[in-house]
Amino acid sequence: NAGVTQTPKFQVLKTGQSMTLQCAQDMNHEYMSWYRQDPGMGLRLIHYSVGAGITDQGEVPNGYNVSRSTTEDFPLRLLSAAPSQTSVYFCASSNDRGNNNEQFFGPGTRLTVL
Amino acid sequence: GENVEQHPSTLSVQEGDSAVIKCTYSDSASNYFPWYKQELGKGPQLIIDIRSNVGEKKDQRIAVTLNKTAKHFSLHITETQPEDSAVYFCAANSYSGAGSYQLTFGKGTKLSVIP
Q: Which residues in chain B touch residue A108, judged by CB atoms under 8 angstroms apart?
């Protein structure tokens, strides 16, 4: 049982480039989410999903897209990277569709946009 | 939306002493309050949570108290050990529609336990 996995661990992009951060979980969790973590800002919700085919916006969705075609995978797409998107990104999942239970976090992806 | 304030931002204690971290929230409908611990280079991990139908919960050296009237909750760590050194986040839920909730996190407290 690998839990929540994220790839890549590190990434450097140039302004304007696009990329996809991968997230997968093998716990059959319905709820999945993406957060970004910036120094002194805590964790801020970008997008979340309560099941395959269902996604919604969080607190800071601008510049990011998501899709949920399977229960296991929840990729995060940066359409045109900007320096303001330099951050550490965490994917999380929960066995509670309502998300009132423990969230399991991945190890994170550290993204730098030059 | 929900707003969660967390204090202090940094905390240093001597090994064996107690540590207390406090959070306030704004949404009176919030009913789930988890605490996460994040070690360097890792993702956050749940250490304890409390729901609005109880005022206190304890798990070995860790306890959480909740005051719904005042809209604040606190994490208490007793007999601190060097391995307790980490960043701690509080969070509160808020309804986001269609039967699901979002978590809003505090900005974190960096706890250092001095041997």
A: 42-43
CB of A79 within 8 Å of a chain B CB? The answer is no
Best residue of A55, A99, A109 to probe chain B, by most B CBs closer than 10 Å: A99
Sign of CA dihedral B28, B50, A29, A67: positive
Residue of B nearest to A97 (CA): B100
pLDDT at A78: 97
Q: Is the peptide bond before A107 cis (omega within 30 degrees of 0)?
A: no
* Cα angle: A10, vertex A8, A57; to 5 degrees: 100
Q: What is the pLDDT of residues A7-26, one digit of tens each?
A: 999 999 999 999 999 999 99
Asked if A43 lies within 8 A of B105 by C-beta distance, the reply is: yes
Rounded to whole angstroms, the Cα distance separating B90 from B107 reads 8
DSSP letter assigned to residue B29: T
For chain A, how long is the longest CA-to-CA vector?
Answer: 38
